[in-house]
Structures are given as C-alpha cells and as structure tokens.
Please model this.
Amino acid sequence: MALAHAAGLLACPRCGEGLTLDADTATCPSGHAYDIARQGYLNLLGGPQPANADTAAMVEARGRVLADVYGDVVALVANAVAATAAAVVVDVGAGTGQYLAAALDRMPDAVGIASDVSVAAARRAARAHDRLASVVADTWRGLPVRSGVAQAVCCVFAPRNAAEFARVLSPGGRLVVVTPEAGHLASVRASYGLIDLDPDKDERLAQALGGLFELVDSHRLTTAVDATADQVADVIAMGPNAFHSAPVTESARLEIDVRCRTYLRLEDRAGSDHDLPDREPSEDRG
Model:
C-alpha cells in the first residue's frame, strides 16, 4: 500500500501528534483514530469536505488534461521538484497526483504525500504512484504532516498557506510554486467568459511568502497546444469555471503560459509566528 510510505510523516489533525499506520487505521498516542479508505487514501479532514471541493467529474477532466494537453507543464513541475533532491515531497492541492507522480519518477529514492481537500482527488491520487501517499486535508486548517519532515513542498495552481509550508519543511527545504501568467489560456478565457486572473497575483504571492521564503529560481513556460473541442471542454471543466461556462463545440489553440518558482525556506523565521495571508483562490487548478 502506497500510504505505508508516509509512516512517521503524518500528524493527527486534532492534536498534532504523530500517526501510526496499520492495515486499516491511522492512530495517534492520544487515541484519535482514522479509517484508511479501501481505495488507499486517508481522510484527515475531520468533517465534510467544503462545497467548492473538486467533484469526481472535475478530477477526471483534470486527469485527461494533464495527460494529453499539459505535458510540458507536468515536465516543468517535475523537473523543478526533482532538482530539490528531496527525500520527502509534500504536494499541496495535489489534485490527481500526476505532478507529484512525475516528480517521483525522476526521484527513485523519494516518497511523496499528496494532500487535497477533495475526496475524489485523493481517491484518484492514491493510485497515481507506488511511492505516493494520498490524504484528504484542508490547507487552511493545517497540513496533517509532522514538522520538519519534508525537504520539498510543491503547490501548483493551488491555495498557499506559507506558515504551514515553512513548518513542515526541514532547514534548507525548498518550496516550488506554479502560477499562471497573463497569457495563460487567454483565447479560451475570452471566448467563453471564464474567470479572469488576478492582476495582483504576483504581489500577493510575494506578500504571502515574504519573511518565510527567499526566491532562488524562476522559469517561465510559454507554448501552445492544438486542442480538440473535447479537450477544451476538459480544460474548462477541471477548475472553478466548470460551474458556470458555456458548452464547447469547437477546437482551439490553447496558450500555455505559466511560471514555476523555487524558494528557499528561511531558517530564522520558519516555524515562528507569522501572520497568515487572506485565503487565496486556486488558480485554475491545472
């Protein structure tokens, strides 16, 4: 079971103590217990998932897009994570787990933890890689990961809780963040009236990470993909636009325009009290 690779890494969401995993249950020394789903993921949410959590249809659409349309983005992320040479990687807002799985393919000695607030996503991620442990968790309530056990955290088009990222990282740990640039899916956004990108997103990112992380590397990927009508529909259906978009009937050329940044955890502030930023929306959940 892939979840077994997270032995010694997960923490109880109620008390913060380490979790012990057996075949069917995860328990902490205080007696809190969590059932391991038969599909192999562990739900540590502590309650119902939020109403805006990704549905099964959204997760399946994202799986097809990452496999057939976003190949260059997956490679960009995987290479950036692999460059950290981490032994433990935590992917926050991991979705299908495909980004993390691609990274683990390049890191034969590493293990990964995929965290997502969606049960459907965790179920899909649980079968993404044999060294990937899948958990259901809310980034804003705190990651169910023990402090200082990870050498890399990855966050692709997902909400960012900088204080939690710093807490779970060991000294010298790296944070990989991927965000859309202004040209990302521009034609589709215009044609179907999709949600606009926040023009202040870079400023918000710098503010959120300031004092805890230092930027050490940045790469921008710009390309285009000729997509079928079904693939365009999947691109729309995999994110928040799925709830309010027009039917897709035509193929399109999709602009891919994303930036991948790598940050160094600052040892003098990591783990200290830090004002949390306002909750950030996911950025198309690629």
